[in-house]
Specification:
Blueprint: E1 4-9, H1 13-23, E2 30-36, H2 39-49, E3 53-57, H3 65-70, E4 78-83, H4 89-94, E5 99-102, H5 107-123
Parallel strand pairs: 1-2, 1-3, 3-4, 4-5
Length: about 120
């Protein structure tokens, strides 16, 4: 089975570490290709590493997660919105997000996301 190349984008170091920690429990499924603290860093890493799955914080200084997605009208990665606020169902639908999770993220969230990712890949 191919590992899911995963990128974490969050302006808060604690948010990145939390997701990294939870993903570390799934090393048989996930390869962490990097993390970014803003959309410019994220743009570079996405274009270089071609991730399969991106955990994307929605609210960041110097551009939101949605601003980043606007740069990818036909993106080749799945996205999981991460925020401290309630889900924006219009954004989830518009950007065809795999899921929206609220901080703090728990282990069950990550396990469910990986399950959804595999299910979507089987269906496509």
């Amino acid at each position: 089975m191919n590992l899911i190349k995963t990128l974490i984008i969050d302006d808060e170091t604690a948010g990145i570490f939390a997701i990294e920690h939870l993903l570390s429990k799934h090393t048989d499924e996930v390869e962490l290709v990097g993390s970014a603290r803003n959309i410019e860093e994220a743009w570079e890493i996405i274009n270089k590493s071609k991730p399969d799955l991106v955990f994307l914080d929605l609210q960041m200084p110097r551009g939101s997660g949605l601003d980043l997605l606007e740069r990818y009208p036909k993106r080749k990665f799945e996205v999981v919105f991460v925020s401290a606020s309630e889900p924006d169902y219009r954004a989830i639908s518009r950007y065809q997000a795999l899921r929206h999770i609220c901080k703090p993220i728990v282990s069950e969230d990550v396990a469910h996301i990986l399950q959804l990712y595999h299910q979507k890949k089987r269906e496509s």
